[in-house]
Amino acid sequence: MKTRREFIKVSTIGVGSLAAAGGLLSSLPIKDIFGQSQKVENNKSNANKQFPTYCEICFWQCAAWVQTDENGEIKSVTGNVDDPHCNGRLCPRGTAGVGMYKDEDRLKNPKIRTTVNGKQVFKDVTWEEALDYIAVKMKKIKVEHGAECTALFTHGSGGKFLGHLLQAFGSTNIAAPSYAQCRGPREVGFIATFGAGIGSPEPTDIRNSRCLVLIGSHIGENMHNGQVQEMSDMIRNNATIITVDPRFSTAASKSKYWLPIKPATDLALLLAWIHEIIYNDYYDKAYIEKYAHGFAELKEHVKNYTPEWAYGITTIEPHVIRETAREMRNASPSVIIHPGRHVTWYGDDTQRLRAVAILNALLGSWGRRGGFYNPESLHLPNFPAPKYPKPNRDWRDAFPGKFNLAGLALASGVCDATVPSITRDCNIKGWIVNGTNLIETLPDQANTIKAIEALDLLVVIDTMPMEITGYADVILPECTYLERYDEIRTSAHRFPTFALRMPAHAPLYDSKPDWWIAKELGNRLGLSDYFAYKDIEEMLDWQLKSVGSSLEEMQKIGVKKFDREEDNLYSLNGEDYEFNTNTGKIELYSTALEEEGFDPMPKYTAHPEPEAGFYRLNYGRAPMHTFSRTANNPQLFELMEENVVWVNPKIAEEWSLANGQEVWLENQDGVVTEFPIKVRVTERIRFDSVYMVHGFGHSKKQLSRAYGRGASDTQLVTRVMLDPIMGGTGMRGNFVTFHTSKPEKTVPDSRKVESSKLVKEEGGKA
Amino acid sequence: MRYAMAIDTNLCVGCSDCVVACQVENNVPVGYARDWVVEVTEGTYPNLAIELRSERCNHCDNSPCVRACPTGASHYAEGGIVLVTPEECIGCAACIESCPYDARFTHPDGYADKCTFCIHRVQNGQDPACVSVCPTTCMTFGDMDDPNSDISKLVKSRKSKVLAPEAGTNPNIYYLT
Questions:
Q1: Mean pLDDT by 10 residues, chain A (766 residues)
Q2: For residue A427, what pLDDT is reported?
Q3: Which partner for A417 in A217, A395, A460, A518 could form a disulfide, CB atoms 3.0-4.6 Å apart?
Q4: pLDDT attached to residue A2
């Protein structure tokens, strides 16, 4: 039976169960988690040591050392010099890793939603009770609907163990918002062109490049460490940077050319550049002749996409388009049209990224020094386990015939497949959400909440109380990365590396690592064969020994570097090569897209524009924060307590807005930010758009620092421009206007009813 | 020996890693900072320029703070590093008033506090924490009296400026522009 799910603040009842938690701890000897070689539970014996880790504050996963003080308490985190992700230098978030561990607002013990006197509250429970509860619910879903009606949303290292659990259970609905809400279109666009995606870290050879073109990518504000470092090398080498951005970003300020483009018109500029490069014979003829398919078709296709044509759309003057095209030609093939990372903007994002890929192909930068290198990784074998059962259905059944080119599950797709529909027999009934605050991550919050209300089970595993934890049936407190082992990092780079994460301290409070949670749940679901190791140390040691290393070795060095197997860092200097595309060539003309019924070559389409008095909402990153995850980190909070909305001085004058004044933003659907946001009057933003850093405006009171600070851009993203090719959720078609006092809400459309319900239930605020 | 720092404003992205690294290294209490980042925007859209600068105590050769200190708590240490001896500081804040760079603050324990150029690290042959952490490697620390040091060569070969030269403090932080 469907029960109403109220948003609950993480507050608890039941002192009695706390005592039980203590009892459980003793039944789980700490050495099972940490092993006997590392007596981290004994702080004193841990004094003045250093332990290897890799950072979990963002996805860049820089390898680091964790230092302890004379009391065995974690003191600092510093970069590992052997790591190509960071070269010994962490970013501010990594340096502030201790703040994540020490945050006194952390989730401290497991909780279950229960009803007391007609009011839903969270009750403190033991791990035993929480895990038993989840297992019973999961088995019930399996019996009533099928195991494939469960899903995992994850954005963190621990998700690998939970994903393994879910697949063993019988579901492949495993999604990360980093695909359909972020980098998915670039992967699909590059796969369609080169037969290979970009991956992470991006294999951009920035430090050797002579020309870097950034399309809305704000390196330096997005603190993707290795890239920031290499961009710095470029600046030092006096190489050319061309930045296309309606905002004068930090990167724009370091650029030889800043193209202050009209928002939503990037594809027109890219097509004009392609036109210039082809019709002026700037392209790499030998490279195109040897490796590319469809040049003649492309040449014909872009015939009319002249700089003059693009000028009318982009506001970038034709001579600037020509000059920058020449700059790219002069640097070719050591040129990078950067694929960016968060690219789900306008719904035609795969096609825009196709244009980026085509431009790189024409300039011969793929597989060339100063362009894109050929990354290499070394894979570890999985610990022996039975084969996964094959589910009969998955989230894709909710979208028959659609998104066939999506290479990974869509978080938004899994969410939509959860919203009940009479036309489907597979509505997802159970979610495990790990390390991703879906309320602030997925667009269209009302839709996310509708899906959540249809669930039989929502388990949230996190280190911090987040908006999503308020909707959970069960909350499991995960320990931070500084308190746990995880899988070995085996990322691809210029050369392969392994990086180890191990605990520098026993988990604070009653928190646990995901590997343990997954194994314990596995045992309860009759899946213990899939978790045949005693503990993670046994698993890691087995994996490492299979490639001639060992856990003991990794504990000493943290990062192990390997030589490349093949000397092909730059592999396309005339060598024969078969690309993983239908034609075996770089597809300027995409046969894969054509087969699926999409344009084989990118076309420009105009996107909706704001009405008078509204401004396009652009959002981005600040170097000291990661999404909504770090807003409460005591050290990072000090660096940036809240976001502000950037407003051009002319617009500020029009609205009589002063610097520092608080405003509420309202979007074209009548949704108003829950909290006010301060205005930053700055010349750095175009007159037709506003800008704010993503990840603020937390409505969770338990975030004692971050609560109510700034505004949530996600709340304003109610219009989604869906990418028909791969299901990416374009989020830059939302327009906002200003209110100097909080407006009364009167218009009762369904979306607003939902969002006001959320607010009311949370704190009774009107 | 004259310790100094050169900070390349063309490389700095204003990430504030130097601020966190200093806080962690020196146990700077919550709410205080010994270094900070300044952003200066000039021009009007679209003809703009930004300068990003990591700022801190300038360890001036002619330090008004040392002169203002009635007890001698503020003093020059090796290589011209300006330090405060907390035990000798009476918390009168005369030094804080005298500093043209606003680089000093009263520590919650009552004494004047500020950047030490991480002298405890420098004595061990390490760079200050801010310098060693910076992802853009925009900061260079060293001895200006040694003509072969990286910093001497940088300051010689690049255009640079110091802050508030009119104050006559002879600061030892150079901003490469």
A1: 55 41 32 36 79 97 97 97 98 97 97 92 97 98 96 96 98 97 98 97 98 97 98 98 98 98 98 98 98 98 98 98 98 98 98 98 98 96 97 92 95 94 82 97 95 96 97 98 98 97 97 98 98 98 97 98 95 95 98 98 97 98 95 96 98 98 97 97 98 97 97 97 98 98 62 31 28
A2: 87
A3: A395
A4: 38
In this structure, how many other beta carbons lie within 10 angstroms of the beta carbon of residue A130? 26
- Are β-strands A497-499 and A559-561 bridged in parallel, bridged antiparallel, or unpaired? antiparallel
A637 to chain B, any CB pair closer than 8 A? The answer is no
Nearest one of A476, A190, A227 to A359, comparing CA atoms: A190
User: What residue in B sits closest to A635 (Cα-Cα)?
Assistant: B20
- Confidence band of B11 (pLDDT split at 50, 70, 90): very high
Q: Which residues of B113-152 are buried (b: 16+ CB within 10 A; e: fewer)?
A: bbbbbbbebbeeeebbbbbbbbbbbbbbbbbbeeeebebb
Task: Identify whether residues A109 and A98 lie together within a single domain.
Answer: no
Cβ neighbours of B20 in A, within 8 Å: 92, 95-96, 624, 635-636, 639
**Cα of A188 vs its chain's centroid, Å:** 16
CA distance A181 to A189: 15
Whole-angstrom distance, CA of residue A431 vs CA of residue A452: 9
Domains of chain B, by residue range, sit at 3-176
Q: Which residues of B touch A224 (CB under 8 A)?
A: none
Positive or negative CA dihedral for A470, A476, A481, A482? positive
Q: What is the dihedral of CA A45, A47, A48, A53, to 10 degrees?
A: 80
Cβ count within 10 A of residue A115: 11
ipTM of the complex: 0.96
Within-domain flag for A276: yes
What are the two backbone dihedrals, phi and then psi, of residue B33, each rounded to the nearest 5 degrees? -150, 140
How is residue A516 written in tokens?
A: 């343990």
CATH top-level class of B3-176: alpha beta
Residue B79, token pair as written in the block: 């290589």
Task: Give the E-state strand segments of A130-206 in sequence order.
Answer: 150-154, 174-175
| Parent domain of A25 | 1-33+105-172+391-478+513-532
End-to-end CA distance of chain B: 25
Identify whether residues A588 and A499 lie together within a single domain: no
Model pTM score: 0.93
Of B167, B148, B160, the C-alpha closest to B9 is B160
Cβ-based interface (< 8 Å): residues of B facing A: 10-11, 13-17, 19-21, 23-25, 30-31, 33, 41, 43-46, 48-50, 52, 132-138
CA dist A546 and A5 (Å) reads: 48
Residues A720 and A734 in one domain: yes
User: Quick one: A517 and A541 in the same domain?
Assistant: no
Q: How far is CA A230 from the centre of its chain?
A: 21
